[in-house]
């Protein structure tokens, strides 16, 4: 069997792909670029392609389907960048490669601490040898209510990690989890979340139903000085509403590992380019907003896991075995 791998990073993934190619007995074609209509021909003769967060709309999927590709796996938990309905219509199976929750959970707690302690401003001052204190007085977690939206594996791990800091914890999910309840953490409505939380951390997948769940109306209902953390998907937040909230002072700070319209920007070197994402440029300029480039997942364990499991999913598909990574 043959798998064509796109977005293959030479500095961390390539060695792993070559190792698992031998271990699993899979022939690989490695391409460092994102899949597009020009390089789709590389997948000719491959039943499977392996990607990361590149957009896969219907017209691009059709090109791959015409080359005989029947399986698309993404080395990510989320798969909203793939038009799943179109893939099914074309007879293609979509799969993902979930990684352990601890890397993103660790990163989330770091962003929370950085945001409430105004670490961006502290670091910027230190870099220019400004050691003054005015404007960098922080807050302590023990005095705050932290709301977690989405109590899947990552959200639950964040709640567990935060339990040692003495803060009050509340949660929201359309599917309430018994483990969270057993820990004594109450589920609240979104309206109650907006009213009670000093820090709101997002851990929900992006769907049509929760697109822009944090919009101008939601922000207006939040506590003054609320801090928002997003390590999930950029589309959960209306960027314009977020910017207005920061400019008005309603939002006291934000830690963003994801933003809207990041496709084609993140994971590429754009230091000499004029970016088309105006909202990203504005958000990066605020002294109370920390922005990183969708890398909360990026740990040794995660990279190994997604490479291995994406290929194992391909192997299950080709051998007609039960496939735990298939998107139903």
Write a structural description.
With 328 residues, the protein is α/β, with parallel strands linked by helices. It folds into two domains: 2-99 and 299-319, Rossmann fold (3-Layer(aba) Sandwich), CATH 3.40.50.720; 102-291, 3-Layer(aba) Sandwich (Rossmann fold), CATH 3.40.50.720. Helix content is 35%, strand content 14%. The protein has twelve helices and eleven strands. The protein has helices spanning 14-24, 58-66, 84-89, 102-116, 119-127, 153-162, 178-182, 190-196, 216-221, 239-248, 278-285, 300-319; strands spanning 2-5, 27-30, 48-51, 71-74, 93-95, 145-149, 168-172, 199-202, 226-230, 251-256, 289-291. Strands 7-6-8-9-10-11 form a six-stranded parallel β-sheet, with helices on both faces. It has a five-stranded parallel β-sheet with strand order 2-1-3-4-5. Strand 1, helix 1 (14-24) and strand 2 (27-30) form a beta-alpha-beta unit. Helix 1 packs parallel to helix 12 (300-319) and helix 4 crosses helix 6 (153-162). The longest helix has 20 residues, at 300-319. The chain is globular, with a radius of gyration of 21 Å. The mean pLDDT is 97.
């Amino acid at each position: 069997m043959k798998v064509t791998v796109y977005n293959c990073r030479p500095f961390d993934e390539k060695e792993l792909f070559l190792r698992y190619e031998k271990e699993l007995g899979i022939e690989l074609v490695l391409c460092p670029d994102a899949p597009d209509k020009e390089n789709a021909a590389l997948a000719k003769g491959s039943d499977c392609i392996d990607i990361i967060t590149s957009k896969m709309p219907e017209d691009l999927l059709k090109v791959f389907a015409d080359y005989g590709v029947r399986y698309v796996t993404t080395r990510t938990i989320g798969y909203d960048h793939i038009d799943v309905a179109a893939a099914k219509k074309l007879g293609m199976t979509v799969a993902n490669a979930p990684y352990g929750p601890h890397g993103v959970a660790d990163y989330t707690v770091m962003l929370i601490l950085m945001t409430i302690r105004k670490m961006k401003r502290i670091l910027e001052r230190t870099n220019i040898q400004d050691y003054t204190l005015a404007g960098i007085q922080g807050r302590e977690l023990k005095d705050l209510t932290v709301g977690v939206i989405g109590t899947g594996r990552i959200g639950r791990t964040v709640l567990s990690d935060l339990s040692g800091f003495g803060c009050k914890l509340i949660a929201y999910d359309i599917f309430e989890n018994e483990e969270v309840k057993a820990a004594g953490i109450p589920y609240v409505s979104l309206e109650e979340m907006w009213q009670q939380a000093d820090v709101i951390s997002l851990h929900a997948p992006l769907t049509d139903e929760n697109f822009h769940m944090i919009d101008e109306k939601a922000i207006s209902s939040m506590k003054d000085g609320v801090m928002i953390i997003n390590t999930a998907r950029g589309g959960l937040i209306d960027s314009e509403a977020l910017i207005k909230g920061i400019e008005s002072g309603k939002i006291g700070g934000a830690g963003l590992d994801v933003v809207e319209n990041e496709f084609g920007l993140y994971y590429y070197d754009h230091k000499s380019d004029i970016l088309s994402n105006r909202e990203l440029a504005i958000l990066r300029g605020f002294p109370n907003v920390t922005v990183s480039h969708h890398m909360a997942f990026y740990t040794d364990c995660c990279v190994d896991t997604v490479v291995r499991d994406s290929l194992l999913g391909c192997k299950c598909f080709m051998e007609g075995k039960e496939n735990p990574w298939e998107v139903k």
